[in-house]
Amino acid sequence: MFIKMNHSWFNKNLKCIVLCGGLGSRLLPLSLEKQKGMIEISGQPIIKYIIDYWLKFTNDFIFVVKYKKEGLIEYLKTLPIYSTFIEPRELKGIGDGLLEVAHLINDNFITVLGDCYCHGKFNFPENFEQGLGVWSTLFEEDIKRSYSIEIDNGKVNKVIEKPQKLLNNLCGLGFYFFKPDVFNYIRKSPPDLNGRRGITEVIQLMIDSGEIVKPLFFQGNYINVTYKEDLERLEKLINQSA
Fold first, then answer.
1. Helix 46-54 crosses helix 69-76 at what angle (to 10 degrees)?
2. Is the peptide bond before 29 cis (omega within 30 degrees of 0)?
3. How far is it, in rounded angstroms, from Cα 47 to Cα 39?
4. Alpha-carbon distance 3 to 66, whole Å?
5. Which residues contact 237 (CB under 8 A, 6 or more apart)?
6. Distance, CA of 221 to chain centre
7. Architecture label for domain 15-241
8. Mean pLDDT of the chain
9. Domain extents for the chain?
10. What whole-number distance in Å separates Cα of residue 68 and Cα of residue 38?
11. pLDDT tens digits, 93-122
C-alpha cells in the first residue's frame, strides 16, 4: 500500500525509477528464460518484494527494461501501480539508463536497482536535497561488490566503486535520491573504455563540483542479488520477516 511520506523532500510528483534490464549472467541458468527480477523467492518474483518496499514512498514507477522484458512487463502491469516502461537501444551503465528517462522527470526522484532488496528503514535528515543509501555492515564482500562511502561533516565526500581496500564498514546501496540536476552531471561525465557511464563516477563529479550529497543511513537487511548464494540469503531473510 502506498503511504505518503511526511517529509519535505517527498512530494506528489515523486517518481521511482527501477533499473531492471540486465542479463543477470551470474545467475545462469536461472536467468536464461526470464529476467532476473522474475526469479521467484518464496512464491513471488524478486521484483515484487522490491516494489512493495518502495510503495512506501510513491506508487508512480518508471521501469528501464531490456533483457526478457516481455514477461517482466506483463507481470508489472498486473500490479496496482502507475507504471511506465522505457527500453534503451543499448545497456550502457546506470548513468546512461537514467538519461533515457530524463524527459519524464521534472522533480525529485528515487532510483532503485532492480536486483537490490531491502527490509528496514532510512534515516532522512530534514534538510537533505539529495542523498545515497548507506548501510553499516560487517560483511566486507557486500562493500567490495558494491561501492564504499567516505563521510566528512555529515556529507558524502568520496564514493569508490568495488573497492579492494576498505577504510570503514560503510556500504553504498543501490538506492539514490536525486534532483533533476543529476542529468547534467551524467552528460558531463565521460564514459569509460567500454562506453559505459557508471553512477559512482557521476556522484563523485557532483561532489567535486560542490554539490552536497547526504548519507541516508539504512537500518535493516539488504542484499544485492548477484549470485546464486544471494538467492539463498534472500529467501532466508524474506521468511524471517514474513
1. 50
2. yes
3. 8
4. 30
5. 117, 119, 221, 223
6. 15
7. Alpha-Beta Complex (3.90)
8. 91
9. 15-241
10. 10
11. 899 999 999 999 999 999 999 999 999 999
